[in-house]
Amino acid sequence: MGTALLLSSACYIASALYRTKKPLFSLAMAGIGSLLMLGLGSWMITLQGWDKGAAIPMLVAVCGIFWVAVGFMLNFGIISYCGIACTILLYAMVFGRLHQEVSWSLLQVVWLPISAVFYWLTWLSHHRLKEAARVFFAVSLTLWFMPEADALLLRGAAFSGMPLLILLKIVSVFLILFIFRKKWVVWIAS
Fold this sequence. Notes:
It is a single chain. The protein is an all-alpha fold. It folds into 2 domains: 1-98; 101-190, no CATH class. Helices cover 83% and strands 0% of the residues. The chain is built from 9 helices and no strands. The chain has helices at residues 2-17, 23-48, 55-74, 77-98, 104-125, 130-144, 146-154, 162-179, 181-189.
């Protein structure tokens, strides 16, 4: 356990030290530290025999929170995005355990308001936290398609007419982004 913490900590420290001098190396070190944290953590959980309970979701939650913090401190949007993606995955797992059988409309009700909240956070944070605005915008777009991903990937259920519905969602998001292009481009580009 100490070795895993030492290795991932060394990667994060190297990432922080070389952040301004070598940004690509710094990003690579942060990524390696994140992978080591998740990989060695899950390996230790498996070695201890705790993989049947809540240990894996707790590891994903801790990694997600840590990655969001590290990503915002080091100004690496991709690390923050991965941390928020961990939270999205945990939310999907909890909702999937509570509701094994759901309709397509219920999945839309569960995921689309969260997408709207992250879109609103993009607008809210674009003046002071420019990197966070980019991350929130990417999360918002991810959550827009999460009902279909939840149904297909996590539940293995395909609703009738799902390809057409996915195509309609793609067209609708492109239309929305085109109509509001003068707003959101400023939010993520400035």
